[in-house]
Amino acid sequence: MAKTSFNRRRFLTSSAAVAGGAFSFPNLLLHGQNTAGKKLNLAIIGAFGKGQSDTQAIALDHNVVALCDVDKGRLEQAAARHAKTFVDAGLTAPATAPKLYQDFRKMLDENHKEIDGVIISTPDHTHFPAAMWALGYGKHICVQKPLCNYIWEVRELHKAAKAAGVVTQMGNQGRTMEGQRLAKEWIEQGAIGTLKSINLWTNRPIWPQGPLKKLAAEVPSELDWDLWLAQEAMEPYFEFEIPEGQSTKWGNKVHPFNWRGWWQFGSGALGDMGCHIMDATFSILGQAIPTKIEVVSGETTDLCAPTWASLKYHFAVGPNNPEPLVVSWQDGSKDGKPNKPEKPEMMSAMTDEGWAKASSGMIFQGTDALVYEGEAYCASPAVYPDAKFTETKIAMRDGKIKKTEARSPKPNNPQGEWAHCIVNGGTPSSNFDYSCPLTEFVLLGNLAIRSGETIVWDKDAGKVTNVESANKFIKRAAYREGWMK
């Protein structure tokens, strides 16, 4: 199996090199000027952790003029690592270091004339106010996935970005990769016959979820808890009790990692991984929104997402599914075992050990074959049975399966792609016209999970039509004053 995997990676690498396919570049240049080669002035909100890797993606090509993090210790670490990026590359660090802030509002209010774009890599709940504050100053924005953790916020953000006329991007790197484009081209051009069903899964959550209990605790000295809460109602700082049987690896503090399981701040396994794992599905189904979502899950509370969930998203007929189609999503562990589908018969050549290693993945089941990817980003998809994969590669070589999808100028670098488009013109792969409805598709699963019932979704009205109580989860219950630009 190791040899086969290597050959598939080599195939994808070589095919990417001859990808063809144009990336569109309309005349959308910075400030209307001819700015080829210009270095942007960028600000980073959420500077450490994921924000650090997002910064490194553009640090050598552009100017990072401001860093913001509510945790003073992490902010200082981010500044030190930013300087080290240049040393590691054998370069001299810029003479002027980034300005440091704990409050993104103050950072933008004081420096908006200097800033061209903003990268937002904070906990989910802060994405919306930070992005809206930046849009209030007309700044280009790149926001980590999911764009928001409430559907109403996603739609409001989309409208505001359109009105501002800026370049937008969501940080889901699979959308920039070659593999996702190949999977779509194979399916569209008949490599697996007729698409019949789709299975998606992840081992997340790997952090505590389910019936968690808040515990009063002392605020860490370097954390500004008031700023961390952002638009959420003020409440005392807390830690939590980890239920027996759940992992203690990440500790019992909400900041800086475990916020993911709390409805206030995160969006569970779906929000954490859905915008990656559901991305190829969203593209292949013509960016459709499901009409109905069925759910079975572990215990869900008003505070936290469950430790596991199984969803069925129902889609109407689309460009690549001539009949209605079901997308099945599974996450977490159930009864001590990974909550994932059984290995399909068409994949009998794969060992059980190889199948077990696929902690996240996707299967596009067709009448004649299937497309499989055993990780989150659809970076290296394959066709099964193996004979069908051989046929597919020959069809690509002979031009019978064509390159129809535009390729990214910055593969595996959504921040770099976004900055490239600001400077040179073009439309980022996961711009908000694409990623806002993708995020809505993902978050609809949380509407079903939180309601505990099958829901029917009216996309045009933006509401659940069969379970009125589910609609209270579309929008945050309240927004604290002083956080919306």
UniProtKB/TrEMBL annotation:
Keywords, sorted A to Z: Signal
All residue ranges annotated as the Gfo/Idh/MocA-like oxidoreductase bacterial type C-terminal domain in the record: 216-318
Signal peptide segment: 1-19
Chain ranges of the Gfo/Idh/MocA-like oxidoreductase N-terminal domain: 41-171
TM annotation in the entry: none
InterPro entries, per the entry: Gfo/Idh/MocA-like_OxRdtase_N (IPR000683), Gfo/Idh/MocA_oxidrdct_glycsds (IPR050463), Gfo/Idh/MocA_OxRdtase_bact_C (IPR043906), NAD(P)-bd_dom_sf (IPR036291), TAT_signal (IPR006311)
SUPFAM superfamilies: Glyceraldehyde-3-phosphate dehydrogenase-like, C-terminal domain, NAD(P)-binding Rossmann-fold domains
Single GO MF annotation: nucleotide binding
PANTHER family, per the entry: BCDNA.GH03377 (PTHR43818), NADH-DEPENDENT DEHYDROGENASE-RELATED (PTHR43818:SF10)
Protein name according to UniProt: Gfo/Idh/MocA family oxidoreductase
Species per Swiss-Prot/TrEMBL record: Phragmitibacter flavus
Taxonomic classification: Bacteria, Pseudomonadati, Verrucomicrobiota, Verrucomicrobiia, Verrucomicrobiales
